[in-house]
Amino acid sequence: MLKKIKVNVLDYYYSLSINKKITLAFMFALSLLIILLAIFTYRISSSILIGKAVENTAQNLRLVTEKLEIIFENAENYSQIAITNNTIQQIVSEPPTDNPLENYNKYFAVQEALRNIADSKTFVDALILYDHNKQIYDSGSLGSITNISELYFNKFANSFYGLVWEDTEASNYLKVNEGRNVISLFQKFNSARTGVPLGLLQLSIDEKYIADQYADIDIGASGNLFIVNKNGRVASDPRKDKLYTSISKDIYFPWVQSHEGGKVFHMDGKDVLVVSRSYPRFDWVIIGMVPIYEITKDNQILTRRFFGIGAIFVLAAVILTILIAKSITKPLNTIKRTVKDVQEGNLDVRLDIKSRDEIGALAKEFNKMVGNTKMLMENIIEEQKKKKEYELAVMQSQINPHFLYNTLESICGLADLKRNEDVVKVVNQLALFYRGVLSKGSPVISIEDEILITQTYLGILKIRYGDQIAYTFDFDPNVYKYKSIKLLLQPLVENSIYHGLKNKRGKGHICVKGRIEGGHVVLYVIDNGVGMKQEQVDNLFNIGEADYKKKSFGLKITDERIKLYFGAAYGLHIQSEYGAGTTVKITLPTLETGGDAE
Q: Is the pLDDT of residue 551 over 50?
């Protein structure tokens, strides 16, 4: 297969002109160099842009880390403030009393202290205090609090100081009748005076507040920043539908677990830059992802412009190459064009080459050869013209006696029937007919004159056949001015009557019409006679000279006359249905009687 392609390419190359070979080779070489330069430039610049993107994204991740560290350190400080608050220490240290009002006042005092601490920092979503008496105090606006303190009481039982951060989870409370996704700090609560464990403090931060810290960081129109834990579960993401989903099966997850920095991965049919940074406080990994096409889109624009400029240079180089090659191959192209003109029949051409080398000698001999050929062709054309005139004269001598014989036969028939008035009419019509035929010496007349001749002829037959034959004429007035050979329609009408209507039972009808169709004059002779079978139609134009006396020759002669005067593209086309009738279509050029073809 490859061998065949190679052969075809070489064959095509060898068939090209010298000018085209020089131009094609130069254009191919220059285009290849520009394409290679564009590819290498794109790769190098893309590598630089990706490196810059990694550096910028890593810097953004570092900024996120610093923001998170500030938030969580402040959270621990505010937790410490809460558990060392004098009011909280005093009330929680005292056991509940039997006085409900006193217990309520204590609860309200603790809640007010917690509210004051929570309200001073917007990142604190809730403060909840659980004591060992199973009392729960909160910072206000909370409801449906689930007591989860027992787990941490047991966890911190053997340590004086206990503090732990819990990854993102659904909140164990409702705030303003809504659940939250929160990151929570749990800290053991001891008496500042005696060191006796008093309870547990929970400080919760809404995950949305964490996500808001980096949601506005721009790393591309479709780039994303999010946080996952060590198991690959999403702990924070501005796209809330991604929260708690897992990336553990994604191709890049094993890499971000053990690496910091950036790397390109192919995912979902496109290349994506993944940049990661660890956050040890929670065993988190902060990840930034941005499609490569966004990083390199400016580079793609530059590359397209580079190709555009390169195309202009290639075009300019091709034009210069063509001009240089043309100056070299101009004499050869002149000979080629002149030979082609001669092949197409133009014998008036001459090679005008000034050089006196071999090409000049060849041009001189070529001019002699063309001159001799032209003289020979003119002699042949003159002989053919005379031959056509002789053939037309013979055809005309066949048509006129044939019609006159049929008309005189009709007059004899009318005389035998004692139809003297009809005899007079026929003789008058015959006189009018021949006056129209002979009034102009040219064998080519206007279609309007040909229609008048045909109407006169049908008038003669109408007198003989009476109501047995009817005829109509339907012509577009625009066709009247165009040329027709004399006695074009009459033989066709005659043929329709004697071979189509004569043997028909009932009344016969002939319709003669003309239109302009497709830039040609088209005439129709339509009869409702006996028609012909297809093999008869096929044989109509195959009648030899020896058969003229035995068969109808009006159609064949008329077709030949049209072709002799107007060319082989014009003539007759016959369509017939046996038992239904025949349509003869005549196609003529649009040659006006006073001018040339339109």
A: no
Q: What is the pLDDT of residues 11-34, one digit of tens each?
A: 776 677 777 777 777 777 777 877
| Residue 176 falls inside a structural domain | yes
Distance CA 92, CA 133 (A): 9
Assign residue 531 the CATH number of its domain. Answer: 3.30.565.10
Mean pLDDT, range 188-192, rounded to an integer: 83
How far apart are the C-alpha atoms of 208 and 227, rounded to whole Å?
12
What size, in residues, is the chain?
598
Give dist(CA 201, CA 197) in Å, integer.
Answer: 12
β-strand 469-475 against 508-517: which pairing, if any? parallel
DSSP string covering 124-179:
--EEEEEETTS-EEESSSEES----HHHHHHHTTT-SS-EEEEEEEE-SSEETTB-
- Among residues 174, 195, 210, the one where a domain terminates is 210
- Residue 259 amino acid letter: H
Q: Which residues contact 571 (CB under 8 A, 6 or more apart)?
A: 559, 562, 563, 586, 587
Q: Report the SS3 class of residue 34.
A: helix
* Cβ-contact 334, 354 below 8 angstroms: no
Residue 212, token pair as written in the block? 């808001």
Residue 168 and residue 227 in contact, taking contact as beta carbons nearer than 8 Å = no
Beta strands in 447-580 (DSSP E): 469-475, 483-485, 508-517, 520-527, 571-577
| CATH code of the domain in which 149 resides | 3.30.450.20
Q: Which domain holds residue 543?
A: 381-588
- Asked if the model's pLDDT at residue 63 lies above 80, the reply is yes
DSSP state letter for 96: P
Residues 329-359 have pLDDT tens digits of: 677 677 777 777 777 777 777 777 766 666 6
Is 112 contained in some domain?
Answer: yes
Q: How far apart are CA 491 and CA 586, in angstroms?
A: 12
**Which residue type sits at 512?**
V
Domain count along the chain:
2
CA distance 499 to 226: 98
In a domain, 222, yes or no: no
Strand blocks (E) in 342-416 = none
Q: Which of 187, 210, 233 is the last residue of a domain?
A: 210
